[in-house]
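Running log. JK asked me to keep both predictions on one page so they can be read side by side. First protein, sequence followed by its tokens:
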Amino acid sequence: MKKWGSIFSVAALFASLLTGCATSAPKAVDTSSGAAAGNAPANATLAPEKQLVVAGNGATVEQMMKDDIFKKFNAKYPDVKLTYVSGVSTEIVAKVKAQKASPQIDVTVIEGGEQEGGRVEGLWEPLSDKDIPNIKKVGADLKVKDNSGVTVNFTPMGISYNAEMVKAKGLPIPQSWNDLAKPEMKGNLSIAEISSNFGRSALIMLAYANGGSEKNMDPGFEKLKTIAGYMPTFAKTSAQLQQDMQNKTAAYTTWTMARSLVQKDAGLNLEFVIPKEGANLVPNVATIVKGAKSPNAAKLFIDFLLTDEIQTLYGSKLYYNPAVNVKLPDDLSKKLSFDRSKVVNFDLEVVGQKTPEWLDRFNKEVAPKVGK
């Protein structure tokens, strides 16, 4: 596997790519925890409610949230009962929208495309560094539109493959998104439905690899129809993708570098590739649901996610690049590095607006091609 360059800031997702290289997370404002030296934090007067409901992705993300982050937060705020609702980001946004009259979720931590879709729907409360002082530690290049959320980490998309299986079967090492449509992929591939960010990102990149973009998805859908014939089904969740790779029922999948590194630690002989056409980044964005029942606890929780301790934990346990300028161990920093010149800038507003249309088209045009 190539040695990727320095860690990329996700400015590309919201503005434009910066040039040059860096050895840590994007440069941020130098603050402690949002308070002037010697004074109490700006949110010190917030009294948390007795419960907090957090929604986010499943699998390893859910495990770390429950086993590590929740326990650490409860050590600081022992009277807050924490509940986790897992699901893909599209499902979470749909739940929040359905519950708009009486929100059952306080905080979401979801991918940027879905967060943007929710912003357009008016689902999120605006965030302020008055109540969430650690927002000041997040670089301006990670800013979320209208302060409707805050980026807590990010990771690049790409293709992951089982090097042992690929060698044993004489399969190709992927270099292009179009390699997923090679006949050799039949019976060796697992890709998520486009309701998942993993599947949707692959679809958009297939469009880019064939002269299209998020504004012209026809080339991507045509390629995905071919790919659908190589698989018995599209994975419905990231947990299913993970299982397919662990069970070695698939040699290839499309997901993030973070997921690939976690599974490599678990014993799978995985390699991760950013194809020659490039790939997008996946920012995970924390939001407070508009009308949340526990707004104070929500603000304190999001502030906690941006502490150096939790940011380092995201990097060390899940291999997400931190959103704050935290110093990581050299070996971890090297592991999280990649070539940011290959990043493709998705227009998240278009992605958020078009996803329902793409889902409908997927169900009508692509799903019937599965296994044929």
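And the second, directly underneath as requested:
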Amino acid sequence: MLTEATRRQDFPSLEGKIYLNSAAEGIPPLAVRDALAQYFTHKQRGMDGRDDHARVWEAAKAVTAEFYGLTPAEVSICSCSSEAFNLAAAALKLQPGDEVVINDLDFPAGATPWLQPSCPATVKLWKHRDGALHIEDLVSLLGPKTRLVTTSLVSFFNGFKVDLPAVVAAVRQRSQALIAVDVTQALGRIPLDLTDVDLVVSSTHKWILASHGGGLVGVPEAKANAWRVPAGGWFNLQDAFGAKRFDEAVSLPGAAGFTVGMPNYPAVYSIRAGLEYIRNTGLANIYAAAQPLTEMCLEEIARLPVQLLTPRDTSSLAGIIAFKHPDADSLHQRLKGFNIHLMSHAGRLRVAIHGYNTEKDVETFLTVLKEAL
């Protein structure tokens, strides 16, 4: 990552491969493999290994907090982003007449909990125009009944990066709603400014280069009581084994309440390793190396006979570019024949460029794509 030597050393599986699909599955560095091996070593110690598990748990929370701009006490880890959003839905205890704003560029995990028949709230849809979400369209959906506005910082669908400060300002001016942001397609790839966000969620197997089985939750202390998860468990309770344990169950407020049972420690070990790798490499360095490649790729694809789904405004560009073509499956197979890996789904091709990608990767991809077209 960033140099040919470190790329070969840390990502040997990328040798001879052009991998442009980090938005689906990141390629972990060997440091993550070593972390999983360390978990196994600690697990072999039985109960004596729990002290090591607890130490890594706290370290993983601490490094997550650095990226979120929070304290370790304001961060916790559940099993995935979907679990986090479902627990958040339970915490809100929505009533008939309440309103939730979602958008049509979002991943299902952040939108579908509010669409379930069991949710009594009214859902309002913030619709994109030409692949972008416009603040003036959000404003018209806000009012005194709005309880929640939820969005991804970067859309999984086309890579559009929402103007988060403008979203926060609009919501604060026109409602008392909470703001939830999914940073799955941003964390580990672009700098984050999560000022005045009430709930932050991310999965762990994409840009941060860790494993499956984690959901990174952040709740500022000032909003902790707004997110008191009413879930049974023990890790999330104030006094799970006390004298009143069969009389009442009181959840911990804020992020701590999102971890309802035994943490998925293998994932926790890999999360710590992945985020520490990103931090040690330098997120600013990753951004500086990968962003020009993404912009170049966007400009070249925009000249081709495809339907570009990603807005051309580079201020709203993160690491993802998406486009459609009637023969997308054939294009995808052609690219795979050259050991070029990206995502193809329902006629949509998605390119995701990370810090382990090189200028040669992008140039080769574009050359093959042009020939295939």
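Observation for JK regarding the second prediction: The domain at 4-21+282-372 is CATH 3.90.1150.10 (Aspartate Aminotransferase, domain 1).
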